Amino acid sequence: MKEILKQAQLGKYAVGSFNFSTAETLKAIVLAAKNLNAPIIVSTSEGEAEFVGMPEAVALVEAWRIGTKLPIILNLDHGKSLEKIKKALAAGYDAIHFDGSELSYEQNVAKTKLVVDYIRQVEKTFDRQIIVEGELGYLRGSSSLHKEELKIKEEDLTSPDQARDFIEKTGVDSLAVVIGNAHGIFSKGGEKLNLERLTDIRNELEGKAFLVLHGGSGIPEEDVKEAIRLGIVKVNVNTDLRVVYKERLSEQLEDNPEETTPYKILEPILEALREVVEEKIKLFGSQDKIKL
Ligand code: 13P
User: Fold this and answer.
1) Secondary structure (3-state) at 223
2) Cα dihedral angle (62, 3, 236, 15), rounded to 10 degrees?
3) How many angstroms separate the alpha carbon of residue 172 from the centre of ligand 1?
4) Residue from 238, 243, 246, 273 whose mutation best tests the ligand 1 pocket (most atoms within 8 A of CB)
5) Is 181 helix (H, G, I), strand (E, B) or coil?
6) Where are the domains of the chain?
7) CB 128 within 8 A of CB 91
C-alpha cells in the first residue's frame, strides 16, 4: 500500500482520493480508475462511513479489488476519535487520516502519536500495512458549495518548521498540509495555492513523509499540477462528486417523472461521476501507472 505512494513520489504524480457514501459512487470511481489503469484511494469521512457502514465499505472495496485487480486503498478521511479509528481498523481499512488540526500543536502531536503507536501495534500483531496521515494547519470550509468569500490567513498555513518537528515526533507516513487550499467550492473564488510555502515544507521534510493536498475541488488546475510537480502525492476530492451527483439526480427526476427503477435513474449519474473522476486522474497524472 505504501509502495503506491512511494511510486507516485518517484514518478511525480498524485493518487486521487475520492470520497463515497453510496455503492454507485464507489462503482463510478473504480470504473474510472479501471478505464485509465490508475491506482486509486477511496475514502469515507466519519459521517460517510456511518451511512455506508465500515464493514460494508471494506466488503464492497474488496469485491471491486477482486473484480478489477486494481490496488484500491480504503481510507478513513478526517478520523477525529480513536474510537472511530479503532473501528475502521477492525473492519479492515487500509489507511487512516487522523485529523487533530483543531487541537493545539502540542495536543495534535500527542494525539497523533497515540494513533500512530496504536496502528504500528496493529500492523505488527496482524501483519498488515496501514498508511497513517496526520494534519497540520487550519483547513477552512466543508465539502459543499460556499457563497461567502474564502479568506485564508497567513497563520492558517502549515509551518515548515512545525511540519518537520511533527513528522519526527509522531512518525506519520503522510502529512496533510494547508497551503491556500480549503474544503468545498467557493463561488467567489479564493482558493489559490501558496506554492512557495509548499516548496519550503517539501525542503524541510526531505521526502520523509508523503505530502497530501485536501480540498481538491475548486483549486485552479494549474495550481494542482504545480503542487504535484513540487511533491504532492495524494489529492483529496469530494465536493466535485457531490455537486455532480446532486445536479444529475435533480435533472434525472425532472426529465423522467414516471421512472421508478433506481438503477435506471442512477445510471446517468454514475456515468457523470465516472467522467469527473477520469478528468481528475488525468489532471493528477496517475493514468497508466499500474503494471499488471
Ligand atoms: P473537497 O470537498 O474540496 O474536494 O475536499 C475533499 C477533501 O479534502 C476530503 O478530505
Assistant:
1) helix
2) -100
3) 20
4) 238
5) coil
6) 2-284
7) no
Cβ-contact 178, 194 below 8 angstroms: no
CATH number for domain 2-284, candidates 3.40.140.20, 3.40.109.10, 3.40.50.1000, 3.20.20.70: 3.20.20.70
Pocket residue to mutate for ligand 1, from 19, 232, 241, most atoms within 8 A of Cβ? 19
Instruction: Give the tens place of pLDDT for each residue, 208-235.
Output: 999 999 999 999 999 999 999 999 999 9
Q: How many angstroms separate the CA atoms of 236 and 87, rounded?
A: 22
CA distance 15 to 72: 11
Q: What is the spatial distance between Cα 219 and Cα 238, in angstroms, rounded to a whole number?
A: 12
* CA 258 / ligand 1 centre spacing (Å): 35
Q: State pLDDT tens for residues 153-193.
A: 889 999 999 999 999 999 999 999 999 999 999 988 878 99
Residue that the C-alpha cell 475520492 belongs to: 18
Question: What pLDDT score does 292 carry?
Answer: 63
pLDDT tens track for 91-124: 999 999 999 999 999 999 999 999 999 999 999 9
Encoded amino acid at 264, one letter: K
